[in-house]
Amino acid sequence: MPIFPPTFQSDALPGRIAVVGAAGQLGRALVRRLGNRAIPVTRTALDITAGDAVRAAIADLQPDMVINCAAWTAVDAAEQDPQGCLAVNATAVGHLATACADHGVRFVQISTDYVFGADRARTTPYRESDVPGPLNAYGISKLAGEEAARACSDHVVIRTCGLYAASPEGPIRGRNFLDTMRVLATTKPEVRVVVDQVCTPSYVPHVAEGILRLLETGAIGTFQVVNEGQTSWYDLACELFQRAGIATRVIPIESSAYPSPVERPRYSVLDTSAFAATTRFRLPPWQAGVVDYLGEPSTRLTASPPPFPETIPCSPSS
Q1: What kind and span of H or E run contains 250?
Q2: What are φ and ψ of residue 81, in 5° steps?
Q3: Of the residues 54, 174, 260, 288, which has the maximum number of CB atoms within 10 A of its CB?
């Protein structure tokens, strides 16, 4: 089964596609690939938690499809404000899905591997048909968002994981895991990274192209779109530093040593068989994502890291 080239452009999608959350990593990548067919919708332009505003926007924009990339992704903050997180990740999704259903518009919701994790003995990739079991408020809200998306019969739920992309401004701490690691490496002799959380962090341009290939097929339902393979956050950091020629040491730690009250999945690798069977393509392996990320142009560092020592958590997708 071939791996698609990074220059893929879909020509079989509807003419007008609203990308909600267009200022985020995935939203920006989709808008870029869709070109003049994209209708970028940012948070400043539309409050998706306001049902009346959402209905008015869909009626006014008249898109053929809506892709919702907007999300509350701050895992620790979600635990402190679960209702606020639920409003963005579930209630707002319901507003979008209902408005799309009312206007005959296809609705696409971006979800996450964090809908899994409760099966603490899991060692094999999760299929779409596996029973979800989130561990924290963020995961609970994203699972509720998947359910809300089904208010539109013509819907697609796409789960992905640990999204990252380069920025023209250079690495920015907190933007994604790889950016954060590169910022810290400018002043830190070593960083501590969890070794017992396994998933498939995925490169945004690969995922964006995979999403377009999937949507081109007209399939509905739930699909999982990530780079191939699996890794721990520790091994990802080691791969990044080795390929970038960074001398900062990476120290493996257990999740219990990471100072967070929020439990994260120990294993949340997503099976992509359904995506591959539907599109007849697979995304490149996760290592290729790191290579391509490092190959993107970047110009400067924009954040100052805190004093040593530093412990790095995982990074949710959407």
Answers
A1: strand 249-253
A2: -135, 65
A3: 54
Catalytic residues: 138
Q: What is the pTM of this model?
A: 0.90
Between the two ends of the chain, the Cα-to-Cα distance in Å is: 28
C-alpha pair distances (Å), 109 with each of 15, 68, 229: 19, 5, 24
Distance of alpha carbon 313 from alpha carbon 299, whole angstroms: 25
Task: Write down the H helix ranges in 129-199.
Answer: 137-149, 177-184
Give the residue among 244, 305, 84 at the shortest CA–CA distance from 236: 244
Task: State the helix-helix crossing angle for 233-244 and 177-184, rounded to 10 degrees.
Answer: 60
Residues 234 and 229: their CA atoms lie apart, in Å, by 15
Using the structure block, give the residue that is written with the tokens 């698609």. Answer: 4
Residue 228 and residue 270: Cα distance in Å, rounded?
A: 9
CA distance 2 to 222: 22
CA 82 – CA 76 distance, rounded (Å): 10
- For residue 173, count CB atoms less than 10 angstroms from its CB and return exposed for 0-12, middle for 13-18, buried for 19 or more: middle
Q: What sections of 87-203 are H helices per DSSP? A: 92-103, 137-149, 177-184
pLDDT tens per residue across span 115-164: 999 999 999 999 999 999 999 999 999 999 999 999 999 999 999 999 99
Residue type, 184: L
**∠ Cα 278 279 284 (to 5°):** 125
Domain boundaries, the chain: 17-312
